[in-house]
Amino acid sequence: MKNLILICLALFLARCSKEKTDQALLELDKKKLEENINYDKITFYKFAKIAVRSSALQDTTLPEYQKFSKQAQSVVKTLNAVNAHQNESISVIDALRIYQEYRSVKQFVKETDEDVFPLLTSGFIAMKTGSKTPLPFFKNAEKANYQNIEHAVLSMVVLATRDLGQPFALYECAKTQPELLDDCEIKTLLEFVRGFLFFSNSLFYLSEDGLSRNIKWLDKNEKIPLPYTKAFFGWSRLNDEQSHLAFHSMNYLFRGFDRMRMERKIDEERSLEDFEVFLTDMNKLGIQNELVWGVTAYLYLKKEQPEKSIPALEKLSTSPLISNTEREALQQTIAYVKDRKSDKALNSVYDKAFMGKIATRYMFAVLAKVDWEKVMKQQGVPYTGEVFAGIGKFKALSNAVSQYTQASTLEKGKKEIGKKCSELLEKAKGFIN
User: Fold this and answer.
1) Cα separation, 318 vs 380, whole angstroms
2) How far is residue 211's CA from residue 27's CA, in Å, rounded to a whole number?
3) What single-letter DSSP state applies at residue 382?
4) Which of 322, 278, 313 is nearest to 293 (CA)?
5) I want to staple 256 with a disulfide (CB 3.0 to 4.6 A). Which of 64, 271, 287, 417 is the partner?
6) 364 with 193: CB under 8 angstroms?
7) Given this model, what pLDDT does residue 9 score?
């Protein structure tokens, strides 16, 4: 019996030890990430991207191209016919045809890394000019760097679009390797966007890992100009030094949110330290917003100084980011605080989940204001117009095809095909007569 108890105890301790290591929890998040981007809409998006990228291939004898060439040509032909700037819709017939072709190569798309093909930018240029990419690109280190930047830029651009948005940005983030990028602003902004996306998808350990890496990188690169970051957050009134401090504090903030949502006691203690750094920096800059008010109130409630949390809670309750139901809950929180019931305020109304919602809404409100096409053109990024036109085409194609889970759209497709057949029949009669 003693031996059995000892064995059980050893197994229990081993299990606990494994679950509580940072690396083990990080590996679990990596598996969750793969699950989060493994569904039909993302696979179709990848299908369209591979089609565009393969259109730049000079050597069409490659096995990957041969398996996909018919479908790729069909997608490119349809995309070329779409004027993304005129909100032009794709016909039901074309969408049905592409959907069927997608189904025929779906497994191939799932198993194929899109990065074995030329750059997406090269694909867009090929669609427009017919220019092809020579074979050596497969072993070109410069190509790997540019393609990493493409995934980085796309993750930020599609995140702000209504039709694509967060799942597609998450896929692009999963394809990036920020640590392989040269030291530049895109690298640090990408790491932050990844951290935010991972946080909003409850991948807290992946998010914390990237944000911690970002904080170290920012500490070593204090003098790098941050034009994209200023545009991203709307910090036009801040100089480079102030922008660096503000961005540094935002990384601490979201790392604090990650740690706050983790289960271990040590992570909660670390989260409070991160929040303190965030508030110290924001107070230096004189910045006041929902994030500052939310964290201020939370810290005072945790420190059992509830009366000091009231001004921040009152400001937060007036925010347009707050729903009417949440406003009422905040008023209830203030009532608890006035009665010196800070534990009840934290546990029942003003909790960790509420903090996460405010942070996520704030970031999406920030993203909605960014005109990335304008920003990138101002910074002289080549082929910006082609990239954004391509994203517009992807949106049109994705929207057209995604409807085929609906019976009403399939019925509409059948009617339109029947109508087209009737028209062709009438024309044939005319030729005969």
Assistant:
1) 40
2) 16
3) T
4) 313
5) 271
6) no
7) 55
The string of pLDDT tens digits covering residues 237-248 is 999 999 999 999
Q: How confident is the model at residue 431 (pLDDT cuts 50, 70, 90)?
A: very low
Reference 273, options 288, 292, 259, 287; nearest CA is: 259
Q: What is the pLDDT of residues 120-144, one digit of tens each?
A: 888 888 887 777 776 666 566 777 7
For 45-73, write each residue's pLDDT tens digit. Answer: 899 899 889 888 877 777 777 778 878 88
Q: Percent of the chain, pLDDT > 70?
A: 82
- Domain chopping of the chain, boundaries: 28-202+380-432, 235-369
Q: What is the DSSP string of 125-190?
A: HHHHH---B-GGGGG-HHHHHHHHHHHHHHHHHHHT-SSS-HHHHHHHHHH--GGGS-SSHHHHHH
Q: Give the single-character DSSP code of 84.
A: G
Rg (CA), the chain: 26
218-232 pLDDT tens trace: 999 988 889 889 988
Residue 43 burial (C-beta neighbours within 10 Å; 0-12, 13-18, 19+): middle
Q: Is the sign of the CA dihedral 343, 345, 349, 352 positive or negative?
A: negative
Interatomic CA distance for residues 242 and 238, integer angstroms? 6
Measuring CA to CA, which residue among 225, 229, 222, 220 is closest to residue 191?
Answer: 229
For residue 295, what are the contacts with CB-CB under 8 A and spacing of at least 6? 253, 256, 275, 278, 279, 355
